[in-house]
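Feature request disguised as a bug report, sorry. It would help if multi-protein outputs had a clear separator. Right now it looks like this:
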Amino acid sequence: MVTAAHEYPEIGLLIDGRWEREAAEHFDVRNPADESIVGRVPVATPADIERSVQAAQRGFEVWRRTAPAERSKLLIRAAALLRERVESIATHITLELGKTLAEARAEVVRAADILEWDANQALRLHGRINPSAPGWRQMVLRQPIGPVAAFTPWNAPIGSPARKVSGALAAGCSVVIKAAEETPAGMQGLAQSLVDAGLPPGVLNCVYGHPDAISRALIESPAIRLVTFTGSIAVGKQLSQLAGAHMKPVLMELGGHSPVVVCDDCDPTAVARLAATAKFRMAGQVCVSPTRFIVHERIYATFVEAFAGFARELSVGPGLVAGTGMGALANARRLEAIERLVQDALDSGARLAAGGRRIGERGFFFEPTVLADVPEHAQAMSVEPFGPLATVSAFTDLDAAIGLANRLQVGLAGYAFTQSLATAERLADELQTGLLSINHFGAAAPDMPFGGLKDSGMGREGGAESLDAYTVTRMVSMRTQPWS
């Protein structure tokens, strides 16, 4: 049950600097741990969407003329407010998403880190003056692209919005964001911190509702100049096609199916311990979650046994309960999807090393699951599980391992473990992923670029590249002396 200390916030639309919480239609927000309704989300009407775009247009004209140093200071103030509010925002995220409170706290802190990084990048958005003949000046200007339409997923309620909103605001753009209706409290916490830090009305607008109607209205609006999306490959391709029809650039961070190459010069038990922690973080509902473990045949049996053992030791339960190692899945759809993938793998000849079953009858809990000897034709080897499911298969030589890792048309994150510098160098060169972590399971920090290859998206968030998508490059050639 939700206590007074854990009271879920009243969710609203943010349009032109005002929160609007009354609407003719609402969606329910459910707690995945017990399936209870903890809140509701107002559904934006077409008129609301149009007002949000108009507000973003007005806000852009103000914000683009705000000095980069002032934009930077505001983002840093907002980051400080997020850190002050970490407990309340993290509790709300756990209530709506099911992840553990520790994981939710870490996500809020990461959002603050992102704001601080982009705040400093705002001061590094340099153009240049090219050498030219006497009486001439040739300049290259980098300017904000304009109002941005952003779409973010349910699995990162504040982390994903922070990447998009922070980069856009640092560059001088305004934003209309449609965050996830299932998990709106994280976005509300981010937006409120920015408003309280002094963000002018209209610079950030937040709407919820029917995804197809909102995405079409925003992308087709002449005011919107960039579309940025994090989510599934199928939806990303649809939005890219729609944006292309209106000649609008896109920034796409799409799904993956992360391979993990474990070479025979590693300690298989030590790697398995790290693997269990990384795989079952947020119940595997992370786009960079390690999933396809490709292990050398000489250490394969030891790795599988250790991995399964660590998986069985994890404590699964409500995210607000102290000591919980893995929380609930976000919704019934994820639970059903994992059950189907496990059953298909077993029918295809895989061996169940750990887990494989739903826990209880109320709440969306599933056992941390390890499948060994999984054949390539099993669905779980091609379909991103997005849940607490890991597959393990053996390889004989590095060529075979690289082939298995690269066999899919996705390439977001990848991992590898080896004590050989030569092997690490080859894996760095040949694994087809936008992110590669060697001898650890960390992903991209705010100071490193984040994005995928192949069907896993285009463009980068974070790092020195974090503001690139939100700017346009213009040439200005000026004759400074009278002409004859």
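(second protein starts here, but nothing in the output says so)
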Amino acid sequence: MTGPEEAIETARERAAQRQARAGDIGDEPAGLEASITAERPSLELLSEWSVIEVDSSDIYSTRRAGAPITALKHLLLRLLGQYHRQLEARQTRFNIALLSHFRDLEERVARLESQAQRPETPSRPAPGD
């Protein structure tokens, strides 16, 4: 018989194995870990995060009799597929638009900072002054 603590640990180990098989674990941390460990995520990483992709292999249950619950979750995912795809598409469009806006703001701030750091040339007095 498996206790709740053992079931959670087993589920975490299985998820880690699944990620390792999928090639998600590399030299650099990914996902939430990268946002916590890195001071500032790169634009490439932010672009990757902005696109929402649901992986149906992440659906599982840690309960003792979890197989029927997991099957039910997969059925619900299939029945609500159109709704989820539309929702994911709208959220992805919003995320990409927001990322584009932030990128434009960063470029504008960099341009303004470079202008502020440049020494201003003294203006010449107008002739006859």
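Even a blank line would do. Unrelated, but nice: Residues 4-116 form one domain.
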